[in-house]
């Protein structure tokens, strides 16, 4: 990108850089990388159809997430997907969000989610039972199936396997079209809008089935999240919004993290060998248990590094709700700010060889040496991802369970590409299943 023609505007004695041709960049990921490389803490851009201020300074990100988070609401991206997820814990604001989060948080602490370990392993093994030696599979789809099974069994006490193809197609349509609505709404056709509405209808049908199934078959004393929500007396709409939020956010992001991890392992046999050694040493061929979780130290390093290079949440947006000063900048109500994990996690100011896959970089005090928001795969502050502990436990157990049995070999490497939708998906990730 040619940055020689940018315009500098003085704001409180610090420059804001405007990139007139930002919308012409081929990829949203390239856009945020190029903006970062300008070396400015704040860059004023027109990213597609939206004017936004891209924040490249970790301390300013910390203020937006933590100390001055009350001045912001969720950004346009999440506001646009309300027709899909409703007004659940992901999109609700202010007092309503605090109330929802307080109600749901106990179901996501480690003591509680640790009880799901056996179910996570069981669901992974069941999916693998259908794999055949030597076949080439879509690894992203496989990881989606595993994490979908896990979230529905652990949180809702049911299964949606009979709807798997409908869900998969509707999810892709919804995420693709809603992402387009945020970036290039002028390009959406009537057919696009119709397919988006149909995708939401299909997913609503699945969610209604999950809720009705539990109503028809209540389990006395059950501790799954849906049983608790049903006992609160929520309206059908409120139930739908919370269940849809947990269902979508609870499987999509972790599935993407796992898919990217398999890709990275396939390209780095030395890391793969270290993973196998740890799995063989710690597990000895038996299924993983909760007691093994903290012993799988190298497995955790791999996941941390995978989330650095390919963060499922690759950009976070906020809209200013009350005028606020962040650092040396004054932001006004209605302005948009964007913070990209993709760009920050690959910033050479904080990471040696930032584009290299080096799990060992996290084996030490790296996270104490770099600014706290130079690495934020789960966001931060009061709105940090409520399921972060669930996701880390799940990713480690799935990686360990599959890795004990199979090596996944990348096919058609030239077809693979990142797909930055609402989450960062690997597109065309075809891998051959090979028994270890």
TrEMBL record:
PROSITE patterns in alphabetical order: CYTOCHROME_P450 (PS00086)
CDD domains: CYP132-like
Presence of the UniProt keyword Iron in the record: yes
Keywords carried by this UniProt record: Heme, Iron, Metal-binding, Monooxygenase, Oxidoreductase
InterPro entries, per database record: Cyt_P450 (IPR001128), Cyt_P450_CS (IPR017972), Cyt_P450_E_grp-I (IPR002401), Cyt_P450_sf (IPR036396), Cytochrome_P450_Monoox (IPR050196)
Coiled-coil regions, chain positions: none
Nucleotide-binding found in the keyword field: no
Stored PANTHER family: BIFUNCTIONAL ALBAFLAVENONE MONOOXYGENASE_TERPENE SYNTHASE (PTHR24291:SF50), CYTOCHROME P450 FAMILY 4 (PTHR24291)
Family: Belongs to the cytochrome P450 family.
Protein name, as recorded: Cytochrome P450
């Amino acid at each position: 990108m040619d940055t020689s023609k940018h315009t500098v505007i003085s704001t409180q004695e610090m420059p804001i850089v405007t990139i007139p041709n930002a919308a012409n960049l081929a990829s949203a990921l390239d856009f945020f990388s190029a903006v970062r490389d300008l070396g400015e803490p704040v860059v004023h851009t027109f990213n597609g159809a939206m004017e936004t201020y891209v924040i490249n300074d970790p301390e300013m990100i910390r203020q937006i997430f933590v100390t001055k988070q009350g001045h912001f609401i969720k950004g346009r991206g999440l506001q646009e997907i309300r027709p899909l997820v409703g007004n659940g814990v992901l999109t609700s604001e202010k007092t309503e969000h605090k109330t929802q989060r307080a109600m749901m948080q106990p179901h996501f602490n480690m003591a509680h989610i640790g009880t799901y370990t056996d179910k996570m392993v069981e669901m992974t093994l069941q999916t693998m039972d259908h794999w055949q030696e030597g076949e080439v599979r879509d690894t992203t789809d496989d990881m989606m199936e595993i994490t979908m099974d896990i979230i529905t069994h652990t949180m809702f006490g049911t299964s949606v396997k009979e709807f798997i193809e409908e869900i998969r197609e509707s999810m892709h349509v919804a995420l693709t079209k809603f992402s387009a609505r945020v970036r290039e709404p002028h390009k959406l056709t009537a057919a696009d809008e119709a397919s988006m509405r149909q995708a939401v209808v299909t997913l609503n049908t699945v969610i209604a089935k999950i809720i009705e199934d539990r109503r028809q078959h209540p389990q006395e004393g059950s501790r799954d999240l849906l049983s608790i929500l049903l006992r609160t007396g929520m309206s059908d709409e409120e139930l739908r919004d919370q269940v849809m939020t947990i269902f979508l956010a609870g499987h999509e992001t972790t599935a993407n993290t796992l898919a990217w991890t398999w890709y990275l392992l396939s390209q780095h046999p030395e890391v793969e060998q270290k993973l196998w050694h740890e799995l063989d040493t710690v597990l000895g061929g038996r299924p993983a248990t909760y007691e093994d979780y903290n012993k799988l130290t190298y497995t955790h390093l791999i996941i941390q590094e995978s989330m650095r290079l390919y963060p499922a949440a690759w950009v976070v947006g906020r809209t200013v709700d009350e005028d606020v000063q962040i650092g040396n900048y004054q932001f006004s109500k209605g302005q948009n700010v964007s913070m990209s994990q993709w760009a920050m996690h690959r910033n050479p100011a904080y990471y040696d060889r930032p584009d290299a896959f080096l799990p060992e970089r996290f084996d030490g005090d790296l996270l104490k040496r770099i600014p706290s928001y130079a690495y934020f795969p789960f966001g931060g502050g009061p709105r940090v991802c409520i399921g972060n502990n669930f996701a880390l436990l799940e990713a480690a157990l799935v990686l360990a369970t599959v890795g004990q049995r199979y090596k996944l070999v990348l096919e058609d490497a030239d077809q693979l590409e990142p797909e930055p939708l609402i989450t960062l998906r690997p597109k065309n990730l075809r891998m051959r299943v090979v028994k270890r």
